[in-house]
Design brief:
Blueprint: H1 11-17, H2 23-31, E1 41-45, H3 51-60, E2 63-68, H4 73-82, E3 89-93, E4 106-112, H5 115-119, H6 124-129, E5 133-146, H7 172-182, E6 185-192, H8 196-204, H9 210-222, E7 227-236
Parallel strand pairs: 1-2, 1-4, 2-3, 4-5
Antiparallel strand pairs: 5-7, 6-7
Helix pairs in contact: 2-3
Length: 237
């Protein structure tokens, strides 16, 4: 009998549940060298439709708190049960600024293609997130970013038709400076990810998702010139 977890790696399932560049592909690269272990409590912050939570629970046999503001916790719960993961993943609808967990509760925080929306503001890391992680625990984040800083804060002219308020795209150096200024973590990794092109390409294949279809013209014009994916990992002080 085929294991239910195999469904997670099927293109048809992924294309139905992606909400941006392939989060499963990103999660595999992000966690490749992280010392995540069985029995850990991991916060998956901005989990979307729970693809990353399913991956983390399966890969590391950890307890995952799957937190998202917009996706129904009931919908995610049904998905987790479909995979037989209901005893390892706890779905929650929460705002990233109002996380009701005890200080030092988590061994690690993972956030994939979500942190840019709330973590770009100075003070967030040290006030809202790092206190929830035990000293020596990890915060590992991936965000869409830029290969080079914007000139005078303005996007390239050819990208203007697609540039919107709320596109918090910054360089890896920008994120490193922000995290270093917080004093909350010691940075272990800050780099451009290898899977950027593939993750975007697989997102653009999601024919039934209007946002993916809309992004096709933008990415055709971008053509590998400006965007990247930034990975940043910090150990909590």
């Amino acid at each position: 009998m085929t294991s239910p977890i195999n469904l997670l790696f099927q293109d048809s399932f992924l294309r139905q549940h992606m909400m941006g560049p392939n989060a499963l592909l990103i999660a595999r690269e992000l966690t490749r060298d992280l010392p995540l272990k069985k029995g850990m409590r991991i916060l998956d912050l901005g989990c979307g439709a729970g693809i990353t939570s399913l991956f983390l629970a399966h890969q590391f046999d950890a307890t995952i708190y799957a937190v998202d503001l917009w996706i129904s916790s009931t919908d995610n719960w049904q998905r987790f049960k479909q995979f037989g993961m209901e005893d390892r993943i706890i779905p929650l609808n929460l705002d990233a600024h109002e996380l009701p967990f005890a200080e030092g509760y988590f061994d690690a925080v993972i956030s994939i293609d979500a942190y840019q929306y709330f973590g770009h503001k100075p003070g967030y890391l040290e006030t809202h997130l790092a206190p929830l992680v035990k000293p020596g625990g990890l915060i590992a984040v991936t965000v869409p970013g830029l290969q080079r800083p914007l000139v005078n804060g303005q996007p390239p002219e050819e990208m203007l038709p697609w540039w919107q308020e709320g596109m918090y795209f910054f360089t890896s150096d920008w994120w490193k400076t922000l995290w270093e200024a917080s004093g909350a973590v010691s940075i272990e990794t800050c780099r451009e990810m290898d899977c950027c092109k593939q993750a975007w390409d697989e997102w653009l294949l999601c024919d039934s998702n209007p946002y993916a279809v809309k992004d096709r013209d933008m990415m055709a014009v971008e053509n590998g010139q400006y965007f990247n994916l930034v990975q940043i990992v910090g150990k909590v002080n």
